[in-house]
Amino acid sequence: MALMITDECINCDVCEPECPNGAISAGEEIYVIDPNLCTECVGHYDEPQCQQVCPVDCIPLDPERPESREELMAKYEIITAA
């Protein structure tokens, strides 16, 4: 699953630089995650880095975007090949 940022986000800006795929950016009110670029850090790290640094724990899995580890790895390979 791609990750998502909930409205509990406090715009602290610690997650954006941690994303190895550039999937996190400032939205209109809070930070947002581009699900086409989010691999939950599969291929880069063992755990999603944005979740590790978020001080308010507002980055859960997006239940509307289920993806297996294999699908996330395939997405990682496409992103890094580009």
Automatic annotation (TrEMBL):
Q: Which GO terms describe its molecular function?
A: 4 iron, 4 sulfur cluster binding; metal ion binding
Q: What Gene3D superfamilies does the database record attribute to this sequence?
A: 3.30.70.20
Q: Which UniProt keywords apply?
A: 4Fe-4S, Electron transport, Iron, Iron-sulfur, Metal-binding, Repeat, Transport
Q: Which residues form the 4Fe-4S ferredoxin-type domain?
A: 1-29, 31-64
User: Which cellular component terms (GO) are annotated to the entry?
Assistant: cytoplasm
Q: Which PANTHER family match?
A: PHOTOSYSTEM I IRON-SULFUR CENTER, PHOTOSYSTEM I IRON-SULFUR CENTER-RELATED
Cross-referenced NCBIfam families, in alphabetical order?
di_4Fe-4S_YfhL (NF033683)
Tell me what this protein is called: YfhL family 4Fe-4S dicluster ferredoxin
